[in-house]
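Q: For a teaching handout, I want to show students what a protein-ligand complex looks like in token form. Below are the inputs, and the small molecule is iron/sulfur cluster. Please produce the holo structure.
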Amino acid sequence: MKAPNPCLTCGACCAFYRASFYWAEADDATPGGVPAELTTKLDDFRRMMIGTSGSTPRCIALEGEIGKEVRCTIYENRSSVCRNFPASWADGKPNERCDKARAVWGLSPLEPDSWDDMTEAA
Ligand code: SF4
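A: Here is the structure, written as tokens, with iron/sulfur cluster included.
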């Protein structure tokens, strides 16, 4: 049986880092962009996903239980910062930021074989 995409059972990065990006990626500036109502102003140039700042961050768009089963409810419209965050070994290299977020949530780092025989991404 195929294993799920490890990101579908993780979500740690969405509940650890601030997800901020250039303001014009939101859909009130770019049709099809990040839903603006799920963002808030960070500074004159950037917005961030609501929920991703503060001492216990968790993105407003994240559904599910960290480390069990999660889903980004705006996956097709997520920002560049989310698209460009590689899970460890997804592209053949480790990512210490991925490992760090997982560690905070008590999850071991992904390994190269975490990506073997996986089902499709959400
Ligand atoms: S928009 Fe989606 S991928 Fe980006 S932090 Fe939120 S839940 Fe995670």
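A: Two things your students might notice: The chain has one domain: 6-115. The CA atoms of residues 14 and 59 lie 6 Å apart.
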